[in-house]
Amino acid sequence: MTRLVAVGETPLALAPSESDRLEHARDLGLRADGTESNAAVAASRLGAAATWVSRLPDTPLGRRVVAELHEHGLDTAVDWIEDGRQGLAFSEPGREPREGAVIEDRTGAAMAETEANALPRAPIEHAETLFVAGSTPALSETARRTARSLFRHFDGTRVLDLDYRPGLWSVEAAREYFTDVLDAVDVLIARERDVERVLGESGSAREVVHAVAAGHDLDCVVITCADGSAAARVDNVVHEVAAVEADVANSAGDHEAFTGAFLAARLDDEPVADALDRGAAAAALARTLEGPIPDVSAREVQRLVDERSSSGR
């Protein structure tokens, strides 16, 4: 039975090699890349019974998304529709001093036009934890209403990731939405940069989790930092974890790997400090991979956790 249900849109991400620009590239790599599905893959690979729920067009592109998620062992429950489009995201990797760029092409995506009651209900009704990321309500007013309804009616632990994407909506629109919906959230997970942009909180990770939890009356706030470290405030106690060193190939997917590992550990009733350790280990492993889907394993995560424990870190 599903314990973690992740609901959201997964676009197909197209990108040239790191040395190419989109306007000149002859070849583009194609990957499924959604925050909810990526986190669910990580959780599933680490032992949690997870299902990704969404709405997709019954086209080669929509089926391509599900096929890739199935390759990573993730269960899916999809409302297939004949009319609709598959969301796309074009990215141009940056390499110092050249900045990267992302072009979001997700207007009118199938998930943007679905109501909560149109989604497959069984996985949602029987799950213990619901996970939705901010990039899904960013798609449209309908998607915002759907996510709000899911949070307000879910009978279990409700987890929101800020996941702010500037190509989808403005900071002001995101702030207004999250301020309205956070009273229906139990756990907030966010990148440090997203908290500063959207909620206006900055400082050390310890200071930020305190401020966000107190300001929005949240039981649990988890912040991941660009350097791979993280902090969590749960029941007024702050826990911190240092980054795990990694030979970085690509940082895409590291936050989702952390999120999936953290949620999987908490579903198994592991202490917050241990869940943070597993999250940091999974994020480090994800940074060694080229693609955005965190293809991590429980054995690798456990090895890194054990190594850190034996070294006293």
Shape call: globular
Round the mean pLDDT to the nearest integer and report it. 94
Per DSSP, the total helix count is: 10
Structural class comes to alpha/beta
Give the SSE string: EEEHEHEEEHEHEHEHHEEEHHH
Q: How much helical structure, as a percent, in the residues?
A: 25-40%
Strand content: 15-25%
Radius of gyration: 18 Å
Strand order of the largest sheet: 5-4-1-8-9-10-11-12-13
Provide tags for this entry.
13 strands; 313 residues; alpha/beta; 9-stranded mixed beta sheet; 4-stranded mixed beta sheet
Topology, please?
Blueprint: E1 4-7, E2 12-15, E3 29-32, H1 35-45, E4 50-57, H2 60-71, E5 75-81, E6 88-92, E7 101-105, H3 121-126, E8 129-133, H4 141-153, E9 157-161, H5 171-181, E10 187-191, H6 192-199, H7 205-216, E11 220-224, E12 230-234, E13 237-241, H8 254-267, H9 272-286, H10 298-311
Parallel strand pairs: 1-4, 1-8, 2-6, 4-5, 8-9, 9-10, 10-11
Antiparallel strand pairs: 2-3, 6-7, 11-12, 12-13
Helix pairs in contact: 1-8, 8-9, 9-10
Please explain how this structure is put together.
By secondary structure, this protein is an alpha/beta fold. The chain is built from 10 helices and 13 strands. The strands form 2 sheets. It has a 9-stranded mixed beta sheet, sandwiched between helices. A hairpin with an 8-residue loop joins strand 6 and strand 7. It is globular, with a radius of gyration of 18 Å. The two termini are 36 Å apart. The mean pLDDT is 94.
